[in-house]
Design a protein that fits this description.
By secondary structure, the chain is α/β, with parallel strands linked by helices. The protein has ten helices and seven strands. The longest helix is centred in the first third of the chain and has 15 residues. The chain starts with a helix and ends in a 7-residue tail after the last helix.
Length: 279
Amino acid sequence: MTDPLERIAAALERLAPAPMPAPDFTVEAFVWHTAPDRLEPVARVARVDLSLLVGVNRSRDTLMENTRHFAAGLPANNALLWGARGMGKSSLVKAVHAQVRAEGHDLKIVELSREDLPSVQRLLAHLRAAPFQFVLFCDDLSFSHDDQHYKSLKAVLDGGIEGRPENVLFYATSNRRHLMPRDMIENERSTAINPGEAVEEKVSLSDRFGLWLGFHPCSQDEYLTMIRGYCAAHGVTVPEDRLHAEAVEWQATRGGRSGRVAWQFFCDLAAREGVRVSA
């Protein structure tokens, strides 16, 4: 039989878990996990070079300038990268982070999943106390009907009574500009006693981002330029007429063009040419 004192000690430990171990801040990237809370170091960030991101020049330049300001200790805005799937939103965040580090700033990046948003206050407390600048990154952010996670997001965007930590900047990507489906916005408007107030809280989340950067489907010329860039970067050489014909056929079978489709075609092409590629 378990000793009563041991049972009491175990219960107390569940109520007040051991403090989070000190993170290894010599690395550049982390993933936030809960149960227990910890910042898991990332040995190698999966990213593409900034020069290979085609058709997003305006968003690239805006996000780069904003990130440079933040890394230098100047005022900067939280950013929402929204729009078409597969057009390089998350790739741009990671590529900009790498470029700013290459310019001499010891900027860290922490990935936070949407499901862990309720724990964000605890994460911010850890980051606030650290002597580094952090980009807090949430990929594919959106909210469904009756989803209460959006309330936790305000802790990052507004910061409550303490304010957002000066050493933390929040970047999020989403396929939706207003972070929730239009039909759910309309449904709440139609069923609420006060339709305007019913959705204002959720829709206004987007307004709390200082930067809105839109990503739109690419043209065929941009799609082909992406593929040529990948070929040049990885040493894959094929005749232009063959590249054009196969790339157009590939995108036709996928029902559209995007940066992701361009990369998928290139990976298939590289494999057929016997060239190894690191994702």
